[in-house]
C-alpha cells in the first residue's frame, strides 16, 4: 500500500477529486494548508507573500494503482498546457498496515 500526499492549487482541488472519483478512487482526505515551494512565495507589487494557500489531498492506494492515480493528478492539477510554478507536488510514501476501526480488520 502507498499513501499519496497531493498538494494542489485551491482552484484545482474539486476537479482533481472528481476525476479520481470517476476513476474509482473515492477515498480521499482534504485539508487546507499554507506553504511555499521552490518559488519562495510570490511578489505582488511591494508585498511579498511568504506562504500561499494550497489544498492537500491524502489517500491510501494499492501499489498497482500508483501510476494511474499519479497520471490523473498530474493531468488534472496542471495549469495550462505546460504547467506553471505552484501547480503542486505529489509525495508517495509506503504504508505498512491499515486497519478499519469499526471492524478491527487489517485492510485498506
Question: Would you give an account of this structure?
Answer:
- It comes from Paenibacillus rhizophilus.
- Could be involved in the regulation of nitrogen fixation.
- This protein has helices at about 15-20, 65-75; strands spanning about 1-10, 30-35, 40-45, 45-50, 50-60, 90-95.
- With about 110 residues, it is α+β, with helices and mostly antiparallel strands.
- The N and C termini lie close together (about 10 Å).
- It has one domain (about 1-40, about 50-105): 2-Layer Sandwich (Alpha-Beta Plaits), CATH 3.30.70.120.
- It has a four-stranded antiparallel β-sheet, covered by helices on one side. A two-stranded antiparallel ribbon has the order 3-4.
- α1 runs antiparallel to α2.
- A hairpin with a 2-residue loop joins β3 (about 40-45) and β4.
- Helices cover about 20% and strands about 35% of the residues.
- The mean pLDDT is about 90.
How would you concisely characterize the structure shown here?
The mean pLDDT is 92. The protein has helices at 13-22, 66-77, and strands at 2-8, 29-35, 42-44, 47-49, 52-61, 88-94. A 4-stranded antiparallel β-sheet has the order 2-5-1-6, with helices on one face. The chain has a two-stranded antiparallel sheet with strand order 3-4.
